[in-house]
């Protein structure tokens, strides 16, 4: 699975999709949640950092990001952008001391890992008490996919033949994700979404207003969770 992800996400693919307003909005929401909960100078691990685009945004907001990725070219790009970089596999133990981080950002990562429970436990371990995890992941239960399922059609996220969705092996609803966070010892504190999306043969209809009103129906789940202080 790691090899498949390395092949698919090497090169400029990540930078390309981050230029899409759909992904830019979910990224802005995630960075906003982190910055609202962490003071300037906080150390944040950016898991699946790609070329450092996310880290650059975090640094511009006063945080101290560490770019973390399994793709070597991504680490080189992050270093070239002036960010510290760490090579790691998010499917294994994270190479950080317990309680050493103020924040963790896991953008579009958890759906790729075989053992998401291990990833969430590791995020809790490396966070200090009161530290914040913000993660984003495609929503299994979007407004359109709920109707698709009722009609006997598979939700879009469950497509083993799709160009890139075939490496999304762990799809989540908000309820399932919240359950996993609590089981790992983290307390969910906020849910956001970028757009409620409707795909037609004529194109896509996106509503940020609907996503603000009903985030559990949106295309991307943006969730913040805290390691309890006690």
TrEMBL record:
GO terms for biological process, alphabetical: methylation
Tagged with keyword Protease: no
Any Pfam family matching the protein: Methyltransf_11
Keyword Methyltransferase attached: yes
Domain (Methyltransferase type): residue spans on this chain: 46-135
GO molecular function annotation: S-adenosylmethionine-dependent methyltransferase activity
Keyword annotations from UniProtKB, A to Z: Methyltransferase, Transferase
Protein name in the entry: Methyltransferase family protein
Species of origin: Saccharothrix saharensis
């Amino acid at each position: 699975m790691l090899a498949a992800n390395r092949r698919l996400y090497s090169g400029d693919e990540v930078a390309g999709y981050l230029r899409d307003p759909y992904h830019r909005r979910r990224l802005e929401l995630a960075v906003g949640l982190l910055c609202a909960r962490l003071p300037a100078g906080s150390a944040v691990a950016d898991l699946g950092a790609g070329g450092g685009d996310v880290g650059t945004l975090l640094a511009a907001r006063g945080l101290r990001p560490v770019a973390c990725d399994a793709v070597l070219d991504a680490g080189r790009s992050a270093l070239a952008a002036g960010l510290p970089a760490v090579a790691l596999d998010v499917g294994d133990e994270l190479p950080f001391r317990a309680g050493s981080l103020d924040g963790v950002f896991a953008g579009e990562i958890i759906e790729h890992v075989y053992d998401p429970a291990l990833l969430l436990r590791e995020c809790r371990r490396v966070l200090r008490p009161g530290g914040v995890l913000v993660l984003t992941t495609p929503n299994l239960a979007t407004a359109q996919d709920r109707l698709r399922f009722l009609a006997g059609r598979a939700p879009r996220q469950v497509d083993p033949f799709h160009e890139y969705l075939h490496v999304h092996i762990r799809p989540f609803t908000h309820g399932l994700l919240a359950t996993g966070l609590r089981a790992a010892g983290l307390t969910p504190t906020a849910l956001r979404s970028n757009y409620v999306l409707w795909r037609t043969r004529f194109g896509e209809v996106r509503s940020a207003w609907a996503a603000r009103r009903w985030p559990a129906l949106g295309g991307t789940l943006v969730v913040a969770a805290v390691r309890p202080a006690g």
